[in-house]
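ingest -> validate -> predict -> emit
validate: passed (alphabet ok, no gaps, 1029 aa)
predict: started
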Amino acid sequence: MDKVSRAGSYLYDYDYDSNGILIRKSEGSADSGAVLRSSNYEVDLNSGLPLAYTLTEQGKLVQRQEWSYNARGQTLTSAQIDPTSGAARITTHRYCEDADVAAGACPSAGLLLSSIGPRKDIADSTTYSYYISDDPGCELVPAVCSYRKGDLWKITDSLGRGTEYLAYDGAGHALSTKDANGVITDYTYNPRGWLSAIKMRGTDASSEADDRITLIDYWPTGLAKQVTQPDGRFTSFTYDAAHRLTDITDSAGNTVHYTLDNVGKRIKEDTKDASGALKRTLSRIYNELGQLKTQATAAGDPTDLGYDASGNANAVIDALGVATQNNFDPLNRLSRTLQDIAGIKAETKFEHDALDNLTKVTDPKGLDTKYEYNGFGDLVKLTSPDTGVTAYTYDSAGNRATQTDARGNTSAYSYDALNRITKISYPTSSLNVTYTYDAIQPVCASGETFGIGRLSKMQDGGAITQYCYNRFGDLVRKVQTSNGKALVLRYDYTIGGQLRRMTYPDATVVDYVRNAQGLTIELGVTPLGGSRQVLLSNASYYPFGPAANWTYGNGRVLERRYDLDYRPQAIQDTRPGGLEVGFGFDPAGNLTVLTPAGNATPEIGLGYDALGRLTALKDGGTGTLIDGYTYDATGNRLTAKVGTATQVYIYPATSHRLSAVAGVTRTYDAAGNATAIGGTARQYTYDTTGRMTQARRAGAVTMNYRYNGRGEQVRRFLGATNTYTLYDESGHWLGDYDTNGIARQQAIWLDDLPVGLLTDATKLHYIEPDHLGSPRVVIDPVRDVAVWNWSLKGEAFGNTAPDQDPDGDGAAFVFDMRFPGQRYDAASGLNQNYFRDYDAATGRYAQSDPIGLAGGMNSYAYVGSSPIQMTDPSGQIAVPMPIPLPGLPPPHPLVWAALGGAAIGAGFNAGYEYLSGGSSPGTDLYDLTHPQASVANDSASGVSDKAAQATERKEYSRVCKSPIPPSGDKCLDAKANLARLRQCLQLREAYSKKWFGDQDPGHMIEISNTRKAILNQEMDVRIYCKDEC
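emit:
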């Protein structure tokens, strides 16, 4: 049999055997009829289970997978094979057999006993144990029977750590589990079997006061009605008669309302405060095919989209009429973008292989970045015009084994049995990074010893860092020891898991007072031996949005006004020396004017090219150009007019490395790191990890640098003089400490905004941040005067030095914070920006982006040359001006696992829809709300790890949540869905083991439920295929 379908220029050709089983799917061009790739299926005719899958590209085999089964149809082995090398990654499963039952090893045949992963260097296995018999109390009181024969009892990972299932209800729902740390979590269900409460037990068994209890209420339809956090915060959800989400309400009465069209598309979103006042709005128009046609701002400024016959968005036109054209290849993959088709014509081309891996990017300058992969889809070679050739190898489980940069430096990676990175070895062994898990550190006090499954120690070239956790998995103590000096940072949390108190290394305590929504409304500071000082109070917030204002401890009020798109309108402190600025935007959302707060008269005008790159900073009254910039199509700055001088920027034809500015030359190493500016005037040395370790001027060393395994610069030293630096777990700079470990300056944060500064150990100052979170004013609260000012109206890329003596008292106040994530370093002349170093004079980084083109088409340019609208706190990727998501604080992750992400997922996906132009990316709610590993738990390759984790998560979600469309034949449908569920189980188990070490109860419950679904599906097969059984 043969079926052919077309979607625009895309052709699908399906071939079936005489039994109606799909054996081949060919994909190609409907225009030429050429077959570009074919998926071939080998299926067992008796069971309908897949035996082999191959993918060919124009006749060449590029991928192969194989499966084997036992007589019950359960998967025994699954293998992924590299057709080129012949290497195979095989996962093997063992099940309970009749002989095992007879021996008392397991209760019934068919239960999974173990899964053995592909690694050969270690025992790569997970074992499953079951209750051999019913709970003895079942016969006496069946209604409270804790478990039955065959219920899952324990899952034990490769390191021998287990998660234990203590009790079940009569429907087979887990009622109580105990993790490897000994923490017990209880689950309650309503009469319909829906999860209604999750209780993580505290230390007091006689009371629930120290338990973390999350409650879930439902509408009669089964949709979530309200989720209540352990601290009483709640979020409620309302639906229309068609069971579509229409309203989200928080515990303060703030709302997000969705207006839906007849097919359920959100054509309007309104965010209101508790009084019903509109605070944010947007609208959308969809075409007759349900595709987003127009999205408009509160003022009605539109962004229009067009589509090709295959449904790809091939045209985007912004509110200024700037058009972007997208082209797609015959397999519907993006092949070309042309930005500003009537002007700049910035053309970028993309090529892919048969596995849809990106193989080449040609940037607007015509330079190619190439990617090569093995048969497993692992990147093995990257060739970049900026960083040269980087090569990668992998172990048998797909973990990166080595990485060799263009300088010839090879980094080797080691992993434990759970595939957690344990060591990164560099050619310079003193820079090696080791990661220790599960081991309780001697610095951890009683109640801080719940470290199993978590990073407990990190030792590297910069420091030894030890971590301690409470029973709920919160990090409560971090001890960073560098060069023998220990800095201790302590965290304390509310019953809802929110930060309540931080204790800095000098014993200063910063406390957070929160309202019923969990938002910080007051910050207090208590120095060691001193009295509590109010840093700020009376903080208020826009609904589901940013802070609206707060009052500093001396009565200064900082007001932050936003428009109906949640773009900043003004930031105003009316007292002398305070930050006072207004903002204006063009229809496309570019920030075009800076004004006095509350006054539309422009003081500074900002100009942009069609690609949103800053081209001019002008006097608002006269229009006189103050600073001006030009760029090539890729975003390289070509000229800069600063004051009366125009500087010319020179680049080689073969890269984007800046070779000279106004005749001052720059040199680079093979990996694209800047090594010199102006010959010996400024020189930089890099270690074998690729980080800057020394700065020199005129040949003399001005500073040495060391970094930890998180990429943080934790030590600067020259001779015997040291500065030690500490960051929090979000990467915020917390403080600098001198050679003796005594605090020099310490920052205090309100979420991502710096609001306070401690100097000389106990002297408190106020920081007034701008719309991006950059500090602009520092206030001495006692004298109530500004002692530091970094004008927002200065050079836009940060090249204007701050005024360190605005009060004119002759005492310079030195404060090095700049753009978010940056701190000025006088020794190097650069701003240290976490993973990189930023040169404000050129608006570029001194190093190419460590995440490559994932951070932007120009790997050196700062935030796409839009520094007034975007930030880059990590030095890796530009982040747009903070646009609050119309979502809510995440509840316990198991809520989403239990609800399946369906009931509330639409509400949170609305946030993505808002940001992405109306098309939800298919991410389920779990992906949005499940707590991500903190930076402290990330390896140096955390970015690639997170990307891999997200990819694997989406893959198993795709399989597990995509039922096979009915064919009309119940037997075939039952078999197909059984195969899907088995594949789902394999992917879930692999994901849980790799990323959570089988220690996350949410995944364990999902796995258990999938097994039960398989048993039910096997019953369907017996019913509908009885003639074949």
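Residues 884-948 have pLDDT under 50 and may be disordered.
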